[in-house]
Amino acid sequence: GGLRPRPGQEVLVKVLGALEDGGLVERDPRLTFVPGHGDVVQALELGVPTMHPGEIAFFLAACPYAYGRPGSRPCACREPDVPPEAPLLFEVTLLEVRDDPDPQPLPSAARLRLGSQRRDRGNFHFARGDFAAALRSYELALRALDGPASDSPGPEEEEELQEQRVKCLNNCAAAELKLGRAEKALAACEAALRISPDNGRALLRRGQLLAEQGRDAEAALVLRRALELDPASKVIHAELSRLAKRQSPPSSA
């Protein structure tokens, strides 16, 4: 009963995914996504909008509609590996269709789980070179992590929420760079450093981006701080050496 999901609506589904030999590789009793956002595999993106609420459907997905030719490593919602070029059988139950995908109040554990799931999906897109889709998934992950809470997170949950936010922002910076948007990549790095001022990955990338803009003095300060945190980093040493050479006056003949 009920109408099929329309574009822009959010769906809640129960999903089981299995290999041809029956091995279970995916189990999610409450997966939420908006079809068209690139947040799930193509089999679900294309299949769920054909369903009615309460319906149970089976989708046999060739590898391009599942996890592609490379397969996929385990993540928070999927064990074990999905082998390369593996077709999958999905059993999907459409539990609910919501008109407005605005973030709903969720307990902290659910926000963490949803953020991790969406970041994993972004990594999937990034590994395949679809950087726009990766960025969209990372932004959706941040939306989940920053969304309204139905509880007060404890100290450990709050720390994990912050760690996940920093990871997503660093991933956003990487995707923005691949898309040729250095200013947005720099903004993502700076957002990560506002949360975690000593995050080595964000410091290194910020230093590199500042150097590319010719802001050598600022870049050197940032890179020296990164080097204090990771003295053995060959990459940071190389960046600082490059800056020093650029700033040194040419020797006279």
TrEMBL record:
<dbReference type="InterPro" id="IPR001179">
    <property type="entry name" value="PPIase_FKBP_dom"/>
</dbReference>
<protein>
    <recommendedName>
        <fullName>peptidylprolyl isomerase</fullName>
        <ecNumber>5.2.1.8</ecNumber>
    </recommendedName>
</protein>
<dbReference type="GO" id="GO:0044183">
    <property type="term" value="F:protein folding chaperone"/>
</dbReference>
<keyword id="KW-0413">Isomerase</keyword>
<dbReference type="GO" id="GO:0005829">
    <property type="term" value="C:cytosol"/>
</dbReference>
<keyword id="KW-0802">TPR repeat</keyword>
<dbReference type="GO" id="GO:0043066">
    <property type="term" value="P:negative regulation of apoptotic process"/>
</dbReference>
<dbReference type="InterPro" id="IPR011990">
    <property type="entry name" value="TPR-like_helical_dom_sf"/>
</dbReference>
<feature type="coiled-coil region">
    <location>
        <begin position="158"/>
        <end position="192"/>
    </location>
</feature>
<dbReference type="Pfam" id="PF13432">
    <property type="entry name" value="TPR_16"/>
</dbReference>
<keyword id="KW-0677">Repeat</keyword>
<dbReference type="GO" id="GO:0005740">
    <property type="term" value="C:mitochondrial envelope"/>
</dbReference>
<dbReference type="GO" id="GO:0012505">
    <property type="term" value="C:endomembrane system"/>
</dbReference>
<feature type="domain" description="PPIase FKBP-type">
    <location>
        <begin position="8"/>
        <end position="98"/>
    </location>
</feature>
<dbReference type="InterPro" id="IPR019734">
    <property type="entry name" value="TPR_rpt"/>
</dbReference>
<keyword id="KW-0175">Coiled coil</keyword>
<dbReference type="InterPro" id="IPR046357">
    <property type="entry name" value="PPIase_dom_sf"/>
</dbReference>
<dbReference type="GO" id="GO:0003755">
    <property type="term" value="F:peptidyl-prolyl cis-trans isomerase activity"/>
</dbReference>
<dbReference type="GO" id="GO:0016020">
    <property type="term" value="C:membrane"/>
</dbReference>
<dbReference type="InterPro" id="IPR050754">
    <property type="entry name" value="FKBP4/5/8-like"/>
</dbReference>
<dbReference type="Pfam" id="PF00254">
    <property type="entry name" value="FKBP_C"/>
</dbReference>
<feature type="repeat" description="TPR">
    <location>
        <begin position="200"/>
        <end position="233"/>
    </location>
</feature>
<keyword id="KW-0697">Rotamase</keyword>
